[in-house]
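User: I need a structural model of Anti-sigma factor from Paenibacillus soyae for a docking pre-check later this week. Nothing fancy, just the predicted structure tokens so I can convert them on my end. Input:
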Amino acid sequence: MKREWSKPGDVSRSCEAGYAEQHWIDLALGRTDRSRQATLLNHLDVCGHCRAAHDEWSKLLIADAAGACGMEEPLELPAKRRSSLERQVRRIRAGKRLKKSLLAGASAAAAAVMIAVALLNRGPVVEPDTHLISYVEQMEPAALRMMQAADTSRYSILPQGNRQESGFLWLSGDSKEAFLILEHLNGRANSDYQAWAVQGTRSDSLGLVKLSEDRGYLHIKADILPAAENIALSAEPQGGSLRPTTRQIVLLMLPKR
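Assistant: Understood. Predicted structure tokens for Anti-sigma factor:
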């Protein structure tokens, strides 16, 4: 039997393979293991219905995640919140804009979030540009092996609002090693940028970010990393601190492992 592939704009009324919206919620929240994630992402290439559902939930959950991390609340979807988001999805499909109330609750907290996170690692690791490889070879050659390993995931760190900072984080298969690189990171007098592994209200230091002009980088090896819920950054007195002394900015919400 010939397999029919959905065209990019084709959105059918339901998924013939039987996938439900909860599958795409779990995927966006990082609650799916690697093998299941690959199966779901491959399915998006052939099902217009699921592709539309996935895109809609991802946009809503990224906004919801920004609010959650700003308020230091766990990224969960209680029934009441999920019902609210489902109503927003229906409004999108009807061609209506999201209500201002959805954004109002997150706006104050999102203002404290300097860098937005791409919650999904859609597809296999993509090799960074040649100039980045050359840069890491020169500045932190010990990180190259992990960055290029087959089981390493690469996450994008995107600018938020009027901020310019962006970059990437590579995370090893066992989540115990990572490499962070940030562009447009301006140095601050008498201060260092310090990275933190955050779990609940606990923050453990991952080290000081090294600066080279407006680029920052950090090679991380830490047994505490697999348990972390997110990786954050703060400006600390030179030499770093035992605990954050200034407002933390969330770089990456880590998927549950």
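Before docking, keep this in mind: The chain is about 30% helix and 25% strand.
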